[in-house]
Amino acid sequence: MREYDVQIKGHKLALDALTMRMEECEKGQGATYDVAALKADIVGLRRDVDKLKSTDLSMLFGMIEVPEVPSTDILACYELPLTNTGGDTRADDDDAESEVKTDEEQLGIREETIFEDLDDIEGSMFETARQASLQDTSMVGSSGAKDDETPGTDAQTEGFSYM
Q1: What's the rounded Cα separation, in Å, for the pair 110 and 97?
Q2: In percent, how much of the chain has pLDDT > 70?
Q3: DSSP labels for 59-104?
Q4: Tens of pLDDT, residues 66-106
Q5: pLDDT of amino acid 60
Q6: What is the SS3 assignment for 151?
């Protein structure tokens, strides 16, 4: 019902805007082709608004009027036949269980993908750290001195001292 009100208000706003434009056009230049087109648009919009106003909205939403005078056409509550909905309920339960299983499967697939991505990230991080470590250790020679430090005449040697 609200959406029809919104449509009616929207048409009314458009109608008002077109009416104002038409009036401005008529003032400035008289009845021209543009004014005639605007008038046709206004007539169409008015027809749409009238049609929407005359629509019986209760029919759209399945609402009915209950007469105040009891009628033999309408059965009282105790006269209504009982229906067996056991099978229908089971089908609904099966549908609900199926949906739950489907949701669980989708969550499982999603978690699996996330953990695979985490494994890939951890592997990449480990490999990067390993390569950085290898690069740092390759700079240090077997004697513990860096490659660019070569022992010369000024370098002290182990176990030998001048007295």
Answers
A1: 20
A2: 55
A3: HHTT--PPPSS--SSSPPGGGSPP---HHHHHHHHHHHHHHHHHHH
A4: 666 655 555 555 555 555 555 555 556 667 777 878 888 88
A5: 61
A6: coil
Residue 136, token pair as written in the block: 């740092």
Say how far apart CA 38 and CA 44 lie, in whole Å.
10
Question: Which residue has tokens 């990230």?
Answer: 121
Residue 3 structure tokens: 């959406």
* Residue 9 three-state SS: helix
Buried b (16+ CB within 10 A) or exposed e, 13-45: eebeebbeebeebeeeeeeeeebeebbebbeeb
The token pair at 46 is: 């008015």
Polymer length of the chain: 163
DSSP one-letter code for 140: B
* Tokens describing residue 151: 């022992």
Q: Which amino acid type is present at position 151?
A: P
Work out the burial of residue 12: count CB atoms within 10 Å of its CB; fewer than 13 is exposed, 13-18 middle, 19 or more buried: middle
Which helix or strand (DSSP H or E) is residue 121 part of?
Answer: helix 86-138
Is residue 46 exposed (0-12), middle (13-18) or buried (19+ Cβ within 10 Å)? middle
